[in-house]
Amino acid sequence: MLLQTFEAIKKQMIEEEDKFFKEITDFSNEYELTKKRELLMKENIKIEISDLENQANTLKSEMKSMEHDSSQLNELQKQKSELIQELFTLQRKLKVFEDEKNESICTTKYLEAEKIKINEKPQNDAECLRLKKELELYKEDDMESVYEALQTEIEFLELTLAQKYLQESK
After folding, report:
1. Can you tell me the distance from the alpha carbon of 44 to that of 38, in angstroms, rounded to the nearest whole number?
2. Quick one: pLDDT at residue 121?
3. Over 80: is that where the pLDDT of 155 sits?
4. How far apart are CA 11 and CA 96, in angstroms?
5. What residue ranges carry the coiled-coil annotation (predicted)?
6. pTM for the structure as a whole
7. Cα 157 from Cα 164, distance rounded (Å)
8. Which of 109, 120, 122, 143 could disulfide-link to 128, CB 3.0 to 4.6 Å?
9. Contact 43, 37 (CB under 8 A)
């Protein structure tokens, strides 16, 4: 019984709902509410389409601007990379020059020390002192032998001259 009552109420509710929708449809048709609604919806859609087209155009302009900015940014990034490479190259060259400078300074100091050592060696080294004395002796001996050779030659020339003079006087 409860089930029958429920089904009867349900059936009555469906009939009233259908009747309500039919009355609303008739009312809307009678006063052209659906047409006005359609027109209103069409106008709203047109406005919305126009707004969307404006937004699309704005987005297109922003995209072009961003592309332009992006190309400028890419160019700047490229220049930055080139400058960084150039900086690294210059830093390597500077390091090479500094290494060469340091090496030259060390070599100069070493050579100056060797020069001082070499200049002091003849005055302090026993072998150098001995050779120096020996050289002086040879110089003295050479002078004496040159003197003697010249003296001998003078005597020979005097003798030759005297013989020639004697032969002429005979």
Report:
1. 10
2. 65
3. yes
4. 102
5. 35-100, 140-167
6. 0.38
7. 10
8. 122
9. no
81 Cβ neighbours under 8 A, 6+ residues apart? none
State the residue for tokens 């592309």: 67
Name the CA dihedral angle for 92, 98, 104, 105, rounded to a multiple of 10 degrees: -160
Helix (H, G, I), strand (E, B) or coil at 170: coil
For residue 126, the SS3 value is helix
pLDDT band at 170 (very low <50, low <70, confident <90, very high): low
* Rounded-to-integer distance, Cα 48 and Cα 40, Å: 12
Tell me how long the chain is: 170
Burial of 90 (0-12, 13-18, 19+ CB in 10 A): exposed
Whether the CB-CB separation of 128 and 122 falls below 8 Å is answered with yes
Measure Cα distances from 123 to 37, 53, 107, 130, 140 in Å: 125, 104, 25, 11, 21
The answer to whether residues 45 and 39 touch, using CB atoms and an 8 Å cutoff, is no
DSSP tag of 32: T
DSSP 31: T
* Calpha distance 102→84 (Å, rounded): 27
* Positive/negative CA dihedral, 158, 159, 164, 170: positive
